[in-house]
Amino acid sequence: MILEMKVPSPGESIKEVEIATWLVQDGDYVEKDQAIAEVDSDKATLELPAEASGIITLKAEEGDAVAVGSVVCLIDTSAAKPEGTDAPKEAKKVEVPKAEAPKTAAVETKTYATGTASPAAKKILAEKGMEASAISGTGKDGRVTKEDAVNAVPSMGTPTGGSRGTSRSKMSMLRRKVAERLVEAKNTTAMLTTFNEVDMSPIFALRDEYKETFKTKHGVGLGFMSFFTLAIVRALKMYPAVNSMIDGNEMISYDFCDISIAVSGPKGLMVPVMRNVENLSFRGVEAEVKRLAIRARDGQITVDEMTGGTFTISNGGVFGSMLSTPIINPPQSGILGMHNIVERPVAINGKVEIRPIMYVALSYDHRIIDGKESVGFLVAVKEALENPTELLMNNDVKKALEL
């Protein structure tokens, strides 16, 4: 019996996928549920499992865009399993024959006589450190005129024999979709960015005192993300317009906080969502951040885990970024950019002290968020981070950290 394997729908709005990598070869024997391909959608990279055991016949090549519901391969379920194949074959890549490069048409090149120049042209070229032989003259018989010499531009360098190769590769469907969304955000929102700085000393002090006990009890580290996430939840409640988005001529506001976190995965940028963060504790946030980061790293993030979100946090500081203007993750209206922490001289009570400072940036859609709300939101985040014991822990650190 020949089984037609069709492309399943990875999500409600996804109409096609791209064959990123075949993990088997044409004619291989595959086992039921064995991963036979990696497919890219515009939201994630997913594995395609075999629906039955048998000999496989591939019906698409790597790089092909395949509509959801179309046949991608055939499996002959009546074929006997070859002897000596106790385990599925190791993943292999199918070599796709390259199309023969089109022949390049010959280009006719017009050659001018070189080496002769008028006295005025020679003087000008000498001042530029150029030879007449390097100039294509426009005068009679290719003679270099004064005008040619005036217009001549000296070479800014000579090839040194080093590598000058280039390469060209097709962007994945996920990367193309990210690019489209970034351009869409720039073109369709009235995006503006406001900045502030945060003195991280209070958080450093809390982490130094409690991070070992926290990790021993909960199995996760006490990082910066929990402080920032809970500070953002507090600020979103104070400024609900930032927790809103535009739908046509209407503004939708949310009474819950689904926080998207931008993480770098093997297939590029991914933005999984932490749901109902207003109900999470420090331990809950850290555990969820760790879970989503591991799934992103292992390429296991699903479309559902990246769908939705009412606000985004992007942490460029882990890569050493000092300052940036993050781009809104549509249809959301706000994104907070975290950056690296650097010891800087600051004025404290009329004296200069060295403090660990982080610059933070809030990009927002000015169509529904006014300057007063955006600045107030970012100041509220700053206040919570600089006074976490009172504003995030209700003056009971051990209870807040569940110690």
Strand portion: 25-35%
CATH superfamily of the largest domain: Chloramphenicol acetyltransferase-like domain
Biggest sheet character: 8 strands, mixed
CATH topology of the largest domain: Chloramphenicol Acetyltransferase
Oligomeric organization of the protein chains: single chain
Helicity range: 25-40%
Instruction: Look at the helices and sheets and give the structural class.
Output: alpha+beta
Query: What is the name of the CATH architecture of the largest domain?
Result: 2-Layer Sandwich
| Rg of Cα set | 30 Å
Distance between the amino and carboxyl termini? 61 Å
| Shape assignment | flat
Count up the domains.
3
Low-pLDDT regions: 87-114
Describe the model.
About 25% of the residues lie in helices and about 25% in strands. Helix 5 packs across helix 7. The chain starts with a strand and ends with a helix. A hairpin with a 4-residue loop joins strand 4 and strand 5. The chain folds into three domains: about 80 residues, RNA polymerase II/Efflux pump adaptor protein, barrel-sandwich hybrid domain (OB fold (Dihydrolipoamide Acetyltransferase, E2P), Beta Barrel), CATH 2.40.50; about 30 residues, Dihydrolipoamide Transferase (Irregular), CATH 4.10.320.10; about 210 residues, Chloramphenicol Acetyltransferase, CATH 3.30.559. It has about 400 residues and is α+β, with helices and mostly antiparallel strands. The strands form four sheets. Strands 9, 12, 13, 14, 15, 16, 17 and 18 form an eight-stranded mixed β-sheet that branches. A four-stranded antiparallel β-sheet has the order 1-8-6-3, with no helix packed on it.
